[in-house]
Amino acid sequence: MKISIRRWFWRGAAVLVCLGVATGFAAGASGPHYVVTNDDALSSNSVTFYTVGANGVLTLQQQVQTGFSGIAGGYFSANRVVALDDESQECVYASNAFTGEIVGINVITQAVGGSAYGSTTDTGITNGVGLATNAQYLYAGFSDFSTIGTFQVQPGCSLTFVNDTSVSGLQGGIVSAMAIHGNILIATYNDGSIESFNISSGTPVSNGDKQNSTGYLKSQGATYPNGIDITQDGHYAIFGDTSMTTSIEVSDISSVKLTKTVYYDLGGSINSSNIMLSPDETLLYISNTQGDRISAAFFNANTGTLSSGCTSGKLKNYVSSWSYLAGLGLETTTGTGEVLYVAEYGSTSGIAMLQVTSSAGTCALSELSSSPVADPNSPGLLSIGAFPPRGF
Predict the structure, then answer these.
(1) What is the pTM of this model?
(2) What pLDDT does residue 31 have?
(3) Is residue 178 part of a domain?
(4) What is the mean pLDDT of residues 304-325?
(5) Which of 36, 66, 69, 240 is geometrically suited to a Cys-Cys bond with 103, CB 3.0 to 4.6 A?
(6) Mean of pLDDT over the chain
(7) Dist. CA 312–CA 195, nearest whole Å
(8) Is 316 inside a domain boundary?
(9) How many structural domains does the chain have?
């Protein structure tokens, strides 16, 4: 599912990769604590920083201009902002879809540290530019010609372009979401197929495991994986499906390759394109992107199995201000994450804030009285992240 840059409508492909890849906790408990957005603005794009206050309440602090320009739409799964918390530097990276420029922002100074372009065809005018990063490399999924660009992370939050890798799904689909763990990069395509790559040398090299997902085959193409998260030990890859229900798939990747996915139909709200594990891996948060609620499923990190959990009530201002739910973020890097943040795409974009409680096999997601906080800089908010990011 994607969001049109001119109007909102079902187009058949969408999701999220989780909010970013962390490497360490340089910021620490007493360091800077922000939620950040890629505003995806049509003329002059920006990243907006929100401070995280008492009880997880957000306050808009500063807008940082990133250049020309966003597209106010595209794939939910193309995560346009990621955070790097390394021992040597603290950065936020954001993509400008129209030009394909990747911009690095110093978290401490909230100033642009550098930017880089890929090749001349590396743009995301059709569906955006998704990102994934570790301490050495940043990877950009360019939707116009379905390439994964490799950029080397440099001091000062700058980047150097290395090369492109052309990719496509089994049915000719283009790259949608990406996630990294160690030396493996996993990608979804907008056609029901998935693939993993070895990134031990920087540039992605296919592991030869491209395959259609179980959900895609079972539904005869009506369900397909988009959003991706990977467990802390690298044993399981989890996929959030674009579907008429809340559908999740899990692949055992302990062999450092994808295996046949196990399909879970958790029922409930429409679509499960954006997903994210809680820091303690007990809950999988699910953004029901075409609905008005957020779901959580219980996850067993030892067995890779899922079971039904809880669903929020209808989030405030549905239809009157926003029409789609998208990217996810968390208040803390421990436990359940405490407060869950959700991007709201609409004429009045914003970030919903939900308190998470979980105990004795039950859970609850309750929207805070001060939710949502507006993002006046975004004509269509799809991607958010947190700094410091979750530790895996």
Answers:
(1) 0.93
(2) 81
(3) yes
(4) 96
(5) 66
(6) 93
(7) 32
(8) no
(9) 1
